[in-house]
Specification:
Structural class of chain B: alpha+beta
CATH architecture of the largest domain in chain A: 3-Layer(aba) Sandwich
Number of helices of chain B: 17
Number of strands of chain B: 18
CATH architecture of the largest domain in chain B: 3-Layer(aba) Sandwich
Number of domains of chain B: 3
Number of strands of chain A: 8
CATH class of the largest domain in chain B: Alpha Beta
Structural class of chain A: alpha/beta
Largest sheet of chain B: 7 strands, antiparallel
Number of domains of chain A: 3
Oligomer: heterodimer
Strand content of chain B: 15-25%
């Protein structure tokens, strides 16, 4: 275990075990639904210390305590000592994988990413199918990065994004053989595979002359931003679509000409909010549309609840994941609105799936779809 | 026992895997100070109803298995740490419902495992507040707070936690469920509910509580002033109180509380003390209190540290005890002495820390002028061993007792000061033991805590 935990994280583990305030438990999604201490950041850090000091045997349950984490980042956000439990969890996962303590389902994810450039094992041409009728510029310095979730779940969002940005005057590039960003590898603990992939991807982007990457998926944005941490300096910057939309709307390059009389709530995706700190941008975009009223959920912005879909939980522990989703759905229902706007394909999928399952009249849409409606009417 | 537990709450509500149990072998009290006492429990059980708690307690009595009640495990004194072999931790956090809110009577009835933060969020949405605001507010539970007779920041305005408790439901060690009447005042015999406030789960398990709530304050103002010394700041606070003012928050600090402003060059090196006051309530009321306070302060040699400093204090009031761990293992001497001994004890603590080369992070008077407490850290680079440190800590506590004070105004006894209970209470400790024996003849409730 020792060699899988860098010194900075060892120090974090020690700090948490000294302090043990447990503030992290107040919103940790896996603790909230189970009440099991070892499924909270404080508990995981105690287990990490026990693993480092060698006084706990490895077991399936122990591995589960690390794989059952949505990596929502709430623990780090609320931690007075800024202990990075998400990184600790990811590194312990790497160790547990090396020890053979993981479910075979996640091994398939890793193989699929390496072979098919997506975690689902679908043909790569299907992944880029949405781009067929669109024109992109091979020499465009700004790369639209579609990610793996949107193309199979809601490819329309990518089409609209490309159209909105091109219409606003951007010379967009797109790679038909676009690789996976590596988020599932990083989150699940396949660190070596992730680093290999990141190196290959960085080279691919460099060869394509990319200076800037824009993506709709916050998981992709956060992961691409982390490349430099794992493989050294990279020559591109990464932006989320809300950065672009906000700026283009402000400059009048995207004209929201049509009013939409609609009451909505906004769901802050974990990666966009707690990792990338972008919670005002989407709200400003929504407020700039005439007729749209934004009604906040009880927990919003940095306190926003996790949808339960992150960190590989949909695969490693779907039952706990769905309990987490239920709590979010109840909060959405508390607002009394039926339209949820978000800016993450996983959140969108989980919210819509949970609402259908529970027979709730809730529809979750992407922020790009809302903007497009205001542009086109 | 395990079979009985699984039958009572269902197998999903009983933890028996070593990795899970390990995380319940500790609360917030450092194992550094009692490594020989820590025990991995036999099981952790999660009741959801009072009836389940009753049946768990009955089973424990049948099998003579010790029970350790636990909220969120934030005790600074080890009161939620299992220290007897084969203990069962009773985790109350699934008993986290608001039972009813009476907006006219200004009462709320809750299950004991609800966290203060969740309760506060629920009440705030309706325009109310439960003003118990301890340092562990983001994680602590109502039951844990009551069981340790905890102290919150805002006592100056809203009163002690015990004054905010109207009634309790408790499962006694023999399984009997008692419910004290939720009346603001009663003149009929012993105040039985008080027995369980600060009992650290040694007399039973608190399952429900009826609490006094308040309307959300309309306005809050925070004042942060630097003084030449701790003594000067304390005397200013005494004058403010003698003027008839009762700030919700009253904190006197030594130089540690103002040193960042000295370092930034905002104030001169002659300022070695601080005073923080918070008023909240109706707008007009707060404005008058502020005006009268400023009149008192005008006659003092002090300097306003400004809004940013005040705001920063307010935002850090829960986090500060966590942050101190950056320097080493945090510990606190939450001692109190009679007011006329406060300065003497303050000076004693300074010398004490110097004598034993203990890293002193600051001495303050928190909430009441009598509370003279010290934040300190111990780490491997400290000049003394843990054994020497604990001996020195006892020496300081005994000094507070000699001056007529108490060893803990806030954190509780737990395993930390169990050996000092007779020293502090004398014959009164025999009364406590008699009560404990009468209610818990088999000593199954949290054995080893509070000297029982």
């Amino acid at each position: 275990m020792e060699r899988y935990i860098p010194n900075k994280l060892k120090n974090d583990i020690m700090l948490c075990n000294r302090c043990r305030c447990g503030f992290c438990e107040s919103r940790c999604p896996t603790y909230t639904v189970t009440h099991i201490e070892s499924l909270s950041a404080r508990g995981r850090n105690l287990l990490a210390l026990a693993l480092l000091e060698g006084y706990i045997p490895l077991s399936k349950t122990l591995a589960d305590r690390f794989f059952t984490c949505t990596t929502c980042g709430f623990c780090k956000e609320i931690c007075p000592l800024e202990v990075d439990t998400v990184k600790i969890v990811q590194n312990v996962r790497t160790y547990l994988i090396k020890e053979g303590l993981y479910d075979s389902s996640i091994n398939i994810i890793s193989k699929n990413i390496m072979k098919y450039s997506n975690p689902y094992g679908k043909p790569i041409e299907d992944k880029s199918a949405w781009s067929k009728d669109l024109h992109f510029y091979r020499d465009g310095k700004t790369l639209l990065f579609g990610g793996c979730v949107y193309p199979f779940q809601n490819p329309e969002v990518l089409k609209i994004t490309a159209q909105l940005l091109q219409k606003a005057g951007l010379k967009l590039n797109y790679l038909p053989n676009e690789p996976c960003c590596g988020y599932p590898l990083l989150a699940l603990g396949f660190q070596e595979d992730f680093e290999d992939l990141a190196r290959k991807n960085a080279e691919l982007f460099m060869k394509a002359g990319v200076e800037e990457i824009v993506a709709n998926c916050p998981g992709c944005v956060e992961t691409l931003k982390q490349y430099s941490e794992y493989i050294g300096k990279v020559d591109f910057k990464v932006l989320h679509i809300v950065d672009y939309l906000k700026e283009l709307i402000e400059k009048g390059r995207i004209q929201l000409s049509h009013a939409i009389p609609l009451e909505v709530t906004y769901h802050d995706p974990c990666h966009l909010t707690r990792y990338l700190k972008k919670y005002e941008e989407p709200r400003e975009i929504i407020r700039s549309i005439t007729g749209v009223t934004l009604k906040e959920k009880p927990h919003n912005k940095m306190e926003s609840l996790c949808c339960g879909g992150g960190g590989g939980m949909l695969v490693t522990n779907p039952d706990t994941s769905s309990q987490i989703s239920d709590i979010l759905l109840r909060e959405i229902q508390e607002t009394g609105v039926t339209t949820v706007v978000t800016a993450c394909p996983t959140c969108e999928r989980v919210i819509n799936f949970t609402a259908d399952l529970k027979g709730a009249k809730i529809k979750c849409i992407d922020i790009v779809e809302l903007v497009n409606k205001a542009v086109k009417g | 026992m395990l079979k009985d537990l699984k039958q009572i709450v269902g197998p999903d509500n009983v933890l028996t895997e070593k990795c899970d149990l390990l995380t319940y072998s500790r609360d917030r009290y450092s194992p550094l100070f009692s490594p020989h006492l820590l025990k991995i429990p036999l099981a952790v059980v999660f009741p959801s109803t009072t009836d389940e708690v009753k049946r768990i307690v009955e089973a424990a009595n049948k099998h003579l298995i010790p029970l350790v009640p636990r909220g969120r495990g934030t005790s600074f004194s080890g009161s939620a740490t299992p220290i007897v072999e084969n203990s069962v931790v009773v985790d109350l956090t699934k008993m986290n419902k608001v039972i009813y809110l009476d907006e006219d009577a200004l009462h709320v009835k809750v299950q004991a495992g609800i966290s203060l933060k969740d309760l506060e969020e629920t009440l705030n949405r309706k325009g109310f507040t439960f003003p118990h605001d301890p340092g562990s507010f983001p994680s602590a539970t109502v039951g844990g707070s009551i069981s340790t007779n905890a102290l919150g920041w805002k006592v100056g305005k809203y009163g002690l936690l015990k004054d905010l408790i109207l009634g309790l439901q408790v499962v006694l060690p023999n399984g009997t469920v008692i419910e004290t009447r939720s009346m603001p005042k009663s003149s009929t015999g012993f105040d039985i509910k008080s027995l369980f406030i600060g009992a650290e789960g040694t007399l039973g398990i608190i399952t429900e509580a009826t609490l006094r709530i308040f309307p959300m304050p309309e306005k809050r103002i925070i004042l942060f002033y630097a003084f030449p010394s701790f003594e000067d700041a304390l005397h200013a606070l005494i004058k403010i109180r003698k003027r008839g003012l009762y700030p919700a928050i009253q904190l006197v600090t030594d130089e540690a509380g103002v040193e960042e402003f000295v370092e930034k060059g905002k104030i001169g090196r002659e300022y070695r003390g601080g005073l923080i006051l918070v008023y909240e309530g109706l707008e007009g009321e707060v404005e008058v209190q502020k005006m009268e306070t400023l009149k008192v302060l005008k006659a003092e040699k002090c300097i306003d540290l400004g809004e940013d400093a005040a705001k920063s204090f307010w935002e850090l009031r829960h986090n500060m005890y966590s942050l101190m761990n950056k320097e080493g293992q945090y510990d606190s001497l939450d001692t109190a002495v009679p007011l006329n001994k406060a300065i003497e004890f303050y000076k004693y603590l300074k010398e004490w820390a110097e004598k034993y080369k203990i890293k002193n992070l600051g001495i303050s008077s928190w909430v009441f002028s009598e509370n003279v407490s010290m934040d300190l850290v111990f780490d491997s680079s400290s000049d003394i061993s843990i054994r020497e440190y604990l001996k020195a800590r006892d020496e300081a506590v005994i000094k507070a007792l000699e001056l007529g004070g108490t060893s803990s105004y806030c954190v509780g006894v737990g395993i930390r000061y169990a050996h000092l209970m007779r020293e502090e209470h004398g014959v009164a400790f025999d009364i406590m033991r008699a009560i404990k024996r009468a209610l818990d003849p088999n000593n199954i409730m949290n054995p080893g805590k509070m000297g029982f």
